[in-house]
Amino acid sequence: MIFTTEELWYLADTLVSSGCQVVDRFPQMILIGFAEAVITVQSFTECFENCLNSRQLYAMNCTSVMFFYEENVHNCILNSENRRTQKKLFVEENKDIVDYFEMNCSLTNQNKEVKYEQPLKS
């Protein structure tokens, strides 16, 4: 998956607003067994926002997220664990096009909701 310049700027702004210092991306990798929310979104950026706002939206702390690019429903999975806490369950995915992202956000900023007036156009 190649991100547009607009998407990269959007992600950078989102991270700064939410207190995340780093987000690690792992193409074609998934975490098995720790889905706290499985939702349908229109875009990767909407999935990413749901993870960042997971405390307000789903009463859970999203530490990693998986987005399935070719699925129209249930394409965004928010996890309560990550590859560091569950190493043996972090595995390669060869059937679907998916990206796994791991959040490294400060706990003090995770309660802050991230909102945007205009979402990116796909």
Write the topology of this structure.
Elements: H1 5-18, E1 20-27, E2 29-31, E3 35-39, H2 44-52, H3 54-58, E4 64-68, E5 76-79, E6 90-92, E7 98-105
Antiparallel strand pairs: 1-7, 2-6, 3-5, 4-5, 4-7
Helix pairs in contact: 1-2
Catalogue the unreliable spans: 107-122
Question: Based on the structure given, which CATH architecture of the domain at 26-107 is correct?
Answer: 3-Layer(bba) Sandwich
> What is the rounded Rg?
13 Å
Our count of helices gives 3
The main sheet orders its strands as 1-7-4-5-3
Structural class: alpha+beta
Morphology: globular
Percent range for β-strand residues: 25-35%
Largest sheet, in brief, is: 5 strands, antiparallel
| Top CATH class of the domain at 26-107 | Alpha Beta
Assign a percent range to the helix content: 10-25%
For the termini, the CA-CA separation is 13 Å
GO biological process, one term: anatomical structure morphogenesis
Organism: Gongylonema pulchrum
Pfam families: PAN_1
Protein name: Apple domain-containing protein
Task: Describe the overall structure.
The protein has 122 residues and is of the alpha+beta class. The chain has a domain at 26-107: 3-Layer(bba) Sandwich (Hepatocyte Growth Factor). It is 23% helix and 30% strand. The chain has three helices and seven strands; from the N terminus they run H-E-E-E-H-H-E-E-E-E. A hairpin with a 7-residue loop joins strand 4 (64-68) and strand 5. Helix 1 (5-18) packs parallel to helix 2. The longest helix has 14 residues, at 5-18. Pfam families: PAN_1. Residues 20-105 form the Apple domain. This is Apple domain-containing protein.
